[in-house]
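Note to self: the last two entries modelled the partners one at a time, which told us nothing about the interface. This time every component goes in together.
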Amino acid sequence: MNEAVENHPLEMDKERFGIKEPGARYDLQGDIPNEERVRKAMVNFAKDINRTTATYMEACVHCGQCAEACHYYVQTGDPKYTPIWKLEVFKQAYKREASPFAPFYRMFNLKKKISVEQLEEWQELIYDSCTMCGRCSLVCPMGIDIATLVGLARHGMFKAGLVPHELHAVAERAEQEGSPLGATASVFEDRADWMADEHDTDVNFDKEKADILVAMSSIEIMKYPNSIGATARILNALGESWTFRSEGYEATNFGMLSGNVEWQKHMTMKIIDAAVKCGAKLVVLPECGHAYGALRWQGAAMYGKPLPFKVQHISEFLADVVSSGRLKVKKVNQTVTFHDPCQVSRRGGATNAPRVVMEALGVDLKEMTPTGDFNWCCGGGGGVVTIHRADKLRYKVFELKMDQIENTGADTVLSTCSNCRQSFNDAQQHFNWDKNMESLLELVADNLIED
Amino acid sequence: MELLEFARGDGLQIAVTIFAAGLIWRLVHLLMTLKKTDLSEARQAGEKAGGIRTIFSRFLHHEPFRERTRNGTIIAYTFHIGLAIIFFGGAPHILFIESFSGLAWSPMPTVVVHVTAAVTLAALIAAVVRRMRHPVLNMLSNFDDYFSWLITTLPVITGLLAVAHIGARYEVLLAIHILSFDAFLIWFPFGKLMHSIIVFGSRYTTGVTFTRRGARV
Ligand code: SF4
Ligand code: SF4
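The predicted structure of the combined assembly is written out below.
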């Protein structure tokens, strides 16, 4: 067992993944002198400076409008949650170290050196209070993609050993064991077999060649295993040549969320290698938002060249097969609302896919206000749901979601992200709320018309 | 009058030189940073067109954001448009532009320019009061924000004083007005006034990235 997991025992029996009740704190990893921490944070942040990020760093006019799009500011009114403020120390470091007038800033000490205390303070802003949902990126009049910058700031924070413990522990476990939740390959295979029985279908494991490689998220494997059965039933009904592969099945990427680029690459490469090995033409990603971003938009950068296969989120795959008529579904007499996972809709461009599927199911869709690309985040993305000390804040921002849902009058909430779903279930328990979030994938599988 | 001659002559020349050198350095520095190629498979073609579209579409907030951003947007638009009307519509300014570029167009009626200047000044004052009082803006603001505000507002104030002949002889007022414009040019490349150029780059970049993804820009 690694050090972080020993010091911070994991709560495996709880509804969501985390560690046992730590108090308010700033977390540090490793025994590094303070100056070295700061240096590492800055050097690694500087590594990510390219034309795009430099342009963003120079563009901000301090108009404060991004605050109005962020659920943390909107719900608390606390100015420290202003999106661009979350980057303030890194902006300061950029000005001092890498901007066009950096020598002047240094010579006259116009921008002060960043201190480790500042970085500790910013840990809460960069991790606990940013789900990287990208709503702020849509409002910024200068077009700054703030969410991407937060992701880059996390790279520096990780190298400096300044990651919230739970997120660090989860990421480290994923790197060492192949899954953040203990869903090792053999556990996955066991659970997949169980689901094959439950769903009375075949689950393909480690087929040598297949057209489609399917990945799953540990959250599904451990908490919502019906996703496995549902996916298998649908692919079998379509007569697809598909497989899970034991060397590359885990779709979540806590390397990316925690800010460790090496781990991110390692996790992504497992799926890429598995797909290449079995000759897959398509990788279908599960109901997981960040998994989509990690492979669909960042996967090629990790691979160093374009991916030799297509990548689809399961909702895109379902939209394709229902609209082409290949997959037939029964009409469902239900009033539903749909929660858009930020990384699939706003950040991923697949906003329409679940709506195509819901139309095929004939559900009565009551959209939230705002919805689609402007939907409010569930508050659990970006690894935030793992961080215990952020719970109070997370519940506060979830109230926005609850209001949105209540206002639709729908009976059921559907979504296509298991991370949203676990955040939702956790908050639902906290608030004793009678609404339930269900999986669109499972709804499709439950209403298949099989010949 | 020596001050006026300096403001129009050497002063302006020095200002333009610093302006041009600073501007070029800042843009060259940006262009020298590495360009990262996006290797992901695009969902759709037309990313460059999407980038250009975003330059224009971000002039207006998406509907769901409008209510919460209304005050800031109205104030910002008022003084941005106001400054453009004053600079490009005022007869003396057009003569000034013609003197170095040869380009000229018919000026706007004087009264329109004067009223616009008054409204612009009011909006600029509203902007700085808001910056000091709004918790978010107050927290975000630094020397650059206030100094850039000052350097933008001074030419408006001195211009109004000059046309109204208030406070000193016209030549003196005119000299001060031109000097304030010289100061504006000198400061331009060093602070946030550069946003008037960088905005095209940042909007375009985001537009390209998200058009590739088929996502909202
Ligand atoms: S909206 Fe954009 S320009 Fe305005 S403060 Fe936020 S990041 Fe800066
Ligand atoms: S990405 Fe989302 S959570 Fe993060 S600052 Fe922007 S709006 Fe807030």
